[in-house]
């Protein structure tokens, strides 16, 4: 029997669209054992809208890996204990992809290493920004060069807390990607590229006062504002309430604020208030950054 613990993730961190992300100490747990037939049991806080049959993303991912390595599929009894809310911009689908790959690899005797798993995970997700921190932990930047990935961990133990404010609506990643324009202007590319550089440097040197500028974005956040009423105002309010910086988490609707210790509650209240004024109720969690990434245990 195998168990994998996979962290939630927050992708983009403002300007790092499709390449930056971080892992959060909020987890989905997956247990798997060999069985006569496929069985998927859903447990935990979030079980709706997740198929408990062969259409489940975790199972489909496991089958893809076995096909790639030419391994005969094995029926499994899988128990998914979900604490990461799906379709909220906290990398729930990446927990399924990463969990499915780690389980399938373990069942096959672990022929692939973490970088190889990351490459398959990124191919399935279509972008490496969630799967990289989900596998490796910490704050990551991942460069795609054709089919090769160059993952970098920028920090494992940053000295800030993450406040995630989770609006009470669902935003499917596919839809939130579909509304983005196909091209961006040179001015906006320069705006984002310069801030990604600053963001990387600020995380490495722990110069968090730079995050208010370094988390600014021009290529996806405001373009998604129609899906999340009050989002730009709530991000600004986080910084006014004392956050180092704030960003849309993944494709939303969750917002993430990077907070000095002691200011988390005030920042969460302020952001929730702004969303509520725009008709959007939300809940807030204060989380630490996960430093380990996915952990496999064999019983
Ligand atoms: N914990 C999970 N287990 C299995 N499948 C999941 C899980 N979370 C999400 N999915 C699947 O991933 C797909 C897309 O989810 P997505 O909108 O990307 O969510 P998120 O933004 O949380 O990653 C959906 O088909 C959903 O069924
Ligand atoms: N870079 C992607 C990240 C999607 O993350 P998710 O947690 O919303 O699935 C994007 O912004 O589309």
TrEMBL record:
The keyword Cell inner membrane does not apply. GO terms for molecular function: ATP binding; homoserine kinase activity. InterPro entries: GHMP_kinase_C_dom (IPR013750), GHMP_kinase_C_sf (IPR036554), GHMP_kinase_N_dom (IPR006204), GHMP_knse_ATP-bd_CS (IPR006203), Homoserine_kinase (IPR000870), Ribosomal_Su5_D2-typ_SF (IPR020568), Ribsml_uS5_D2-typ_fold_subgr (IPR014721). Residues 205-271 form the GHMP kinase C-terminal domain. The keyword 4Fe-4S does not apply. Belongs to the GHMP kinase family. Homoserine kinase subfamily. This is Homoserine kinase. It comes from Dehalobacter restrictus. The gene is thrB.
């Amino acid at each position: 029997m195998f168990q994998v613990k996979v962290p939630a993730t927050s992708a983009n961190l403002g300007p790092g669209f499709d390449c930056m992300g971080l892992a959060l100490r909020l987890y989905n747990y997956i247990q798997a054992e060999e069985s006569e037939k496929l069985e998927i049991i859903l447990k935990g806080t979030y079980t709706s809208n997740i198929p408990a049959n062969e259409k489940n993303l975790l199972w489909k991912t496991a089958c893809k890996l076995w096909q790639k390595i030419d391994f005969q599929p094995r029926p499994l009894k899988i128990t998914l204990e979900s604490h990461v809310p799906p379709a909220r911009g906290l990398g729930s689908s990446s927990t399924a992809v990463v969990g499915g790959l780690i389980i399938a690899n373990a069942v096959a005797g672990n022929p692939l290493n973490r970088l190889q798993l990351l490459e398959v995970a990124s191919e399935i997700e279509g972008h490496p920004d969630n799967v990289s921190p989900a596998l490796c932990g910490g704050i990551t930047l991942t460069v795609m060069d054709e089919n090769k990935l160059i993952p970098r961990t920028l920090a494992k133990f940053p000295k800030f807390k993450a406040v995630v404010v989770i609006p009470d609506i669902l935003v499917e990643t596919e839809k939130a990607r579909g509304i983005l324009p196909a091209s961006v202007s040179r001015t906006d590319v320069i705006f984002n590229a310069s801030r990604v550089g600053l963001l990387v440097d600020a995380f490495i040197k722990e110069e968090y006062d730079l995050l208010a500028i370094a988390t600014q974005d021009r290529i996806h956040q405001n373009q998604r504002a129609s899906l999340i009423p009050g989002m730009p105002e709530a991000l600004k309010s986080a910084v006014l309430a004392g956050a180092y910086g704030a960003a849309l988490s993944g494709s939303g609707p969750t917002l993430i604020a990077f907070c000095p210790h002691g200011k988390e509650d005030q920042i969460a209240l302020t952001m929730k208030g702004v969303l509520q004024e725009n008709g959007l109720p939300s809940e807030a969690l204060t989380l630490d950054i996960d430093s380990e990434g996915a952990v496999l245990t064999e019983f």
